[in-house]
Amino acid sequence: MIQVNGLIKDYGARRALNAISFNANQGEIVGFLGPNGAGKTTTMRILTGYMPPTEGEVTVAGYDVVEDSLEVRKRVGYLPETVPLYNDMSALDYLKFMADLRHVPDAEERAAEALESVNLGERANSFIGSFSKGMRQRVGLAQALLHRPEVIILDEPTIGLDPSQVVEIRELIRAIGKDRTVLFSTHILSEAQQICDRVLIINKGKIVAEDTPENLQARLTGAQRIILRVRGESDDLPAKIKKIKGVQDVEAKSDGSIEFEFASGQDSRPQVARAVVQEGYDLLEFRPVGMSLEEIFLELTRDTSSGKKSS
Amino acid sequence: MRNIWTIARREYDQYFISPIAYVVAVALLFILGGYFAFLLVYANQNFGFVPDVNVINDLFAFLLLLSIPALTMRVLADETRTGTIELLLTAPVRDFELVAGKWLGSFLFVLTLILVTGIYPLILRSQVTPGLDWKLMLSSYLGLILLSAAFVAIGVGLSAVFSNQVTAFITTIAVLITLWWLIGIPANVLPTGGEFFRYMQLNTHFANALNAGNLELSNLVYFFSLIAIGLFTGTVAIEVRRWK
Question: Which of A186, A225, B67, B159 would bridge with B75, disulfide CB 3.0–4.6 Å?
Answer without folding.
Answer: B159
